Amino acid sequence: MSRGNRREINVRGILLVAGSEFVRWLVNPKMFVFAIIFLPLRDLIVLPMMQASEKMGSPLGILESSIATMNSLLGVILLTLTYLLLISSFPTVDGNVLFYIARMGRRNWILGEMLFHVISAVAYSLLITVVSAAQIAAQSFWANGWSLVVTDYDRMFGQEGGGETMRGLIPPNLYFQMAPVKAYLLSFGLLTLFFILLGLIFLAGVLCGKRVLCFLLQVVHLIPGCGMIMLNSSGMWGFPLAHAMLLFHFQEYMREYECSPWLSIVLFSSVLAVVGFGLYRTVKGVSLDLIGEGVAS
Hints:
- This protein has helices at about 5, 10-25, 30-55, 65-70, 75-85, 95-105, 105-135, 150-155, 170-175, 180-205, 210-220, 220-230, 240-245, 260-280, 290, and strands spanning about 60, 140.
- By secondary structure, it is an all-alpha fold.
- It is elongated and about 65 Å long.
- The two termini are about 35 Å apart.
């Protein structure tokens, strides 16, 4: 292949890189952490919803546990830390990858890596959905309407017996504002864009030979974002964590935005475009030795 052809977009090569990385990601031994992390999430979110459903003798909506999981501050932090751990070994640089890069050029390789991060983020969010929904499937219904458990449980039972309130899982500023399908799709979209952003920023750190430092910085940046959210400070909108959670975008009862979720989607998309363009432009001058530095086993 000529030097000039290597600069052309090679769709087959891009898909090959993305597919190869995705398969490695799926069979990564670290994936067991995802199963472990859902144990506290089950106790924190799913079991209280199931217990409330049994107490009322009324089913849950099939999407409600997924919506609650994607809008739980502790849940999102745990899921984010797990996602960062799962992508910490990527991109991989072995004999096959070096062959891909030599064959198709660095820019096609980096496009494949960026596509991998998009696919892995979407798959991760879908996995969260499936695992959350599967646990309540036996006592749930399929409809684009909130269950009586979400809307009426607190009014009927409150914190009777020390139980969890539903407003602590799916508060009024979600179910007063929109139907569950829309709430799920927006929650899914915002969280997925957040994961993609984390992946591309991590990829940029790897290209600079700062894999470990970038991983640590991405973990540490969650702390001030979480702090601002807990203080209910407007400064939380300076951190992507707040934009990743639909819960904080609406006022509790009024149909008014604290920050439009569509604005968050535009902001995420704009930053992703800038980071992606920067990766595409700079990868040509990056040393492959730096790319492989600090790869986790």
